[in-house]
Design goal:
about 0% strand
Length: about 170
């Protein structure tokens, strides 16, 4: 190797060593800065951990257990009732006033008007079971009249629809 080559190698080695030291210094400084920064806290982390480690079941014993089970059943029933239309009411007039009146008062889409005996008589003659079935499942008649399933409100129960149909037919006999 010539002197020129040796000089280049020495300079290049010093450059590489200097860059290596600079890299180590920068990594050390970044590490120190990172250690002094407050850690980000996820508010959902504790909830996730609690949900993950909670027991799959529980043991209820004695009166305390019965009370807890009854409270859980009552809460479940209340939740189920809140998801049913009209709070679970099965009063036919309440259902009619809340939903059915919009079509059965004005005769929209061929709907028989409540109290119009002439429009209701042929339908009542088919039987209440048929009327209830049409109201629950929906119906498209040959003369163009249309009844959407459950009046267009799928959250109605079959009993609610049945009671509303019975109330309307009672008003139209």
């Amino acid at each position: 190797m010539t002197k020129s080559d040796q000089s280049f190698m020495r300079s290049f080695s010093m450059l590489i060593a200097g860059l290596s030291v600079l890299t180590v210094i920068l990594i050390g400084m970044a590490w120190l800065i990172y250690d002094h920064e407050p850690k980000e806290i996820n508010p959902e982390a504790a909830k996730k951990v609690a949900a993950r480690i909670e027991p799959a079941g529980a043991v209820y014993a004695g009166n305390t257990g019965r009370a807890a089970m009854q409270a859980a059943q009552d809460a479940a029933a209340k939740l189920a009732a809140s998801q049913v239309a009209f709070g679970g009411s099965t009063d036919g007039k309440t259902i009619y006033d809340g939903l059915c009146h919009s079509c059965h008062t004005a005769g929209v889409a061929g709907a028989p008007k409540v109290g119009d005996k002439g429009m209701w008589a042929p339908r009542i003659a088919q039987g209440l079971d048929t009327l209830v079935k049409h109201a629950i499942e929906g119906y498209h008649g040959p003369d163009g009249n249309t009844m959407p399933a459950k009046g267009g409100m799928p959250s109605l129960t079959d009993d609610q629809v049945k009671n509303a149909v019975h109330w309307m037919t009672d008003q139209s006999k």
